[in-house]
Amino acid sequence: MKNKGIRNIIIIYFIFQVTMFYTDYKYSKIFGQGQVEYYNLKGDELSELILNALKGDYYSAARITMYFGMSKFDYHNSHFWMYIGFENNPNQTESIASVKDIFNTLIMRLNSDSDTTYARKMERSFYFFNMARKNGATWCKYSINRYKNIDEWEHLSDDEKYMSAKITEENLDAYIRGALLGSGIAALRLAKKYEADGNVNEYIECLSFMGAEFDENEFYIPAYWYRIGAQNGNKECMKEYAILLYNSSNVYDNIRADFWKARSAD
What is the chain's Cα-based Rg? Predict the structure, then answer.
C-alpha cells in the first residue's frame, strides 16, 4: 500500500508537469482565471471536451487530463486521456513524450515489476523518447543516459526486419520488442498472428482504453497491437483498428473510429 501511495503521488505530480507543457498561449488566459476553475469541469463542458478529444482535438484531451489528474485524482482516466492527446498530435513530443518517459521509468520498480515487464516498459518509453529526441525536445539531453542501446534499438524498430519471417515461438519476443520500439510492421504482424490464433477483442469493454496502463495481459489481444501499430504510424493498423472501434458496442470507440479512419487516409 505504501508503494502504491508513492506511485500515485509521482503520477499526479507528473500529470501536473505535463499539463503545464501541454498548454500553450491558447489557454494561458484561462490559467489566469485561476487553476481551480480550470481543473473543475461541469457536466456539459466535460461532455463536449470528451467528444472533441475523441474526434482529434489535442487541447480538449489536455483539459480532460488535467481534470481527472488534478481534480479527481483519477490515475486510470488521466492516463487514458494522455494517450488520446498523444495520438491526436504526436508532434507535441515536448510534453506528452516526456511524461510517458518519466512515468514508464519512475514507477517500474514501485510496482514490483518482473524483469521482463521492466524491459518492456523501457522499450516502449524509448519509442516516445526517441520521437521527442528526433524532434529536438530539450529534455532528451537530460534523459539520454537511461538508454544505453540507442543505435541497437533504433535498428530493431526498422520495419524491414519484420517483413518476411514467420512469427514463431523462437522469434516472438523479437517481434514484440520491435513493435514496442516503434515498428508498425512488427505490430501489424503480431495483430494478425493473434487473430489467426483465434484471440478476440469482443470482451473488451472499451478498446480505446487498451494500452493505457501497460498491461501485459493485453499482449495476446489483436486490438492491442493494432493500436500500437497505429501509434507507430502504420496505415493498415490504423484502418484495422478503426474497423474494430466501429464494431465495438462502446460509444467512445465508435467516435474514435472516425479519427483513425481519417488518419489512415492522410
Answer: 18
